[in-house]
Amino acid sequence: MTIIRHQPEKKAPPDAFSEGRTPTFEESAKESLSNSQLRRNLGKATQTIRRKRGVAVAEMPDWEELREAGRALKARTLRHLDDYLVELEESVKRAGGQVHWARDAEEANRIVAGIAKSHGAREVVKVKSIATDETKLNEYLEGEGIAAYETDLAELIIQLAGETSSHILVPAIHKNRSEIRELFMRELGVEDLSDDPPDLANAARLYLRKKFLSAKVGISGANFAVAETGTVCVVESEGNGRMCTTLPPVLVTLMGIEKVIPQWRDYEVFMQLLPRSSTAERMNPYTSFWTGASQGSGDGPEEFHLVLMDNGRTDVLADEIGRQSLNCIRCSACLNVCPVYERTGGHAYNSVYPGPIGAILTPQLVGIGEPGPDSLPYASSLCGACYEVCPVKINIPQVLIHLRGKVVRHKQDEGGLRERLDPENVAMQAMGRIFANRRLYEGAQKAAHVGQWPLARSGTIHRLPGKLAGWTEARDLKPVPEQTFRDWWKTRRGGPSPNGSTGDGAS
Amino acid sequence: MSAAREEILRRIRRSTRDVPDAERPEDVPVERGYRETDDAPRGEIVERFAERTAEYKAKVSRVSESGLPGAIRDALKARGVEKLVVPPGLPEAWVPYGVEVLRDGSGAGAQLTNDELDRSDGVLTGCALGISQTGTIVLDAGEAQGRRALTLLPDYHLCVVREEQVVGLVPEAFAGLRETVVGEGRAITFISGPSATSDIELNRVEGVHGPRTLEVLIVG
Fold it and tell me: Quick check: is B125 in a domain?
């Protein structure tokens, strides 16, 4: 097999973290749903991983205790985040590392590029890192004349294809083996390549080995960093993480400020929760833990930089209900169980954070008020499967509902007359008044029962008339039944409500 | 830079105004109700380690102390290893005759280059710990293990684990490694089977960037 060329040329499409507006979830989902290849790839993949995760978790008699410990450790950290970050900074410095602080993506990119340039690096090797996807680091580096090579197999695939990730753990989940074979033959110039996964993996091995051996600067994210010791950790499978964090003489790690954990021993919780939730393995093939720079030991980078990035995280922290979203350890279990994600795939979310966790993280990180991110809290049936599998017990449905409220309030407060006269808004406010008053509620039920007959003749309302049609665009509606529960209760008891209450509540 | 630091810390304090001033981190309860030690008999713990390491496609053999040098020789021969990387502190009795030994020294100049490691046929090491619950080998860059690159660039890793090094559960491993990390700041690597990826249709493929073959000899 010969590999003759490669330059990452294609640009990934913009998302919620780029400049400019993104489409809404509904708009993008329509596109994804019409791609039957995508739906087949995704259906197969999510089913496989769901089943495997079930087996890996069932093996653990203390799974619930671990989840609770994970949640509590994150809660402790977030409530005292300033203390832990200062402690982390001291620990990393003590171990010979350097610490940088970045208020936003631009500042983070500038710091990373500055370090690479100070070493004259024209090429850097990268471990899969969503934080750097969030900041669009690769594009920024390219603008500075530095080529960033993604070394995770899936990241390489989507970089070559000029696409974005569609899954936190397996970013190229939307591509099947024959699509990957074609891509490698075209972009890497590989001849006589089969579509056998080991063959495809070997093509990546040959191509990237030279990069690992020659790169002066490695760039990684962090799964965790311990405040007590300064020990940073990268959890991976392929060995590209070990390569990037060990071989280049300079290592830059960009991490969100929420990734800090208090003590070394806390790894005993997260290193049990993460592998089983994400790849459904007892343990992932490789985990690297390093503390500062090599300091003359000859083991690993001589220079280590840790960049601590906010980029909207402190806004998430300020919301007492939304704060738990920062517990996320990026396992992707919630994506794999989500009936919405399973059908639409990750691209419909227009964010580096797709799926249920993305639906709550994205609008909080970028802020409410943009149509794309604002549509994400509605990308859910609120079935609660995501909450059940979450290894750090993020109550995703609770945050989704909370954010829907924020989106609506934002429209009412900031939206001006047009938003306030929006049919849904007017209808919801009218319904709010009706639901709060028994007489109005009973009257409305009677009126609806009489008024609905032309719509509900088939037993289901497929389309509401006029301005209300939006409601039935993506869902059917059950008609008001012949006999309501309240009517039935009256005939059964022969009187008004059982406790004799005469209040106005529609209990 | 320090302006960014001060601002981020100020934002955090503003965002956590609901946290009472008097509350200390330890005041936020963390219930560690999970298992911290494995009560199973030693024999069972070691047996489970062997099984689970093998489940991750590592080749696992159990050998006696006296049979170890022979087992190492046989494994290297079967693999066709001619150039073998050896870390500092590896017991001399483990190093077989008939192979070219590439010794990594400590200190600058004495170290093998990355190219030398890349061109070698394999590496022989000991380990710091084994974890039975997960089939994991732990390296801590200590005696008979060496720096991380040694076990990363060669395509074949032969690892010797002594029965007494095998712990039951994950928390026991982190407790055992604490001194190395806190005291010496050495790097730790967890290895569970050979390098792998599930990136193509979620099919597990062994062997991407790290050693594509991992062989484990359990001595006891």
Answer: yes
Q: Hey, are the CB atoms on B190 and A48 less than 8 Å from each other?
A: no
Q: Which of B134, B185, B210 sits opposite A282 (nearest CB)?
A: B134
* Domain presence at residue A278: yes
* Furthest CA-CA distance within chain A: 88
Whether A334 and A356 have beta carbons less than 8 Å apart is answered as yes
Shortest distance, CA A60 to any CA of chain B (angstroms): 10
Q: What is the CATH number of the domain that holds A243?
A: 3.40.50.10420
C-alpha to C-alpha distances, B117 to A208, A244, A362, A369, B148, nearest whole angstrom = 16, 16, 44, 54, 11
- Predicted model pTM: 0.90
Question: Residue A493 is part of which domain span?
Answer: 436-507
Of residues A342 and A469, the one with the higher pLDDT is: A342
Any domain includes A136: yes
Task: State the Cα–Cα distance between residues A427 and A432, nearest whole angstrom.
Answer: 8
- In A25-58, which positions are buried (b, 16+ CB within 10 angstroms) versus exposed (e)? beebbeebeeeeebbebbeebbebbbebbeebbe
Q: Residue A75's closest CA among B106, B18, B206?
A: B18
Closest chain B C-alpha to A454 CA, distance in angstroms: 48
Asked which of A263, A289, A314 is the last residue of a domain, the reply is A314
- Angle between helix axes A267-278 and A36-58 (nearest 10 degrees) is 140
A193 Cβ neighbours under 8 A, 6+ residues apart: A1, A181, A184, A185, A199, A200, A203
Domain count, chain A: 2
Please tell me the distance from the alpha carbon of residue A115 to that of residue A250, in angstroms, as a whole number. 9
Rg (CA), chain A: 26
Cα B76 to Cα B101: distance, rounded to the nearest angstrom: 12
The pLDDT tens digits for A304-346 are 999 999 999 999 999 999 999 999 999 999 999 999 999 999 9
Q: A41 and A173 in contact (C-beta within 8 Å)?
A: yes
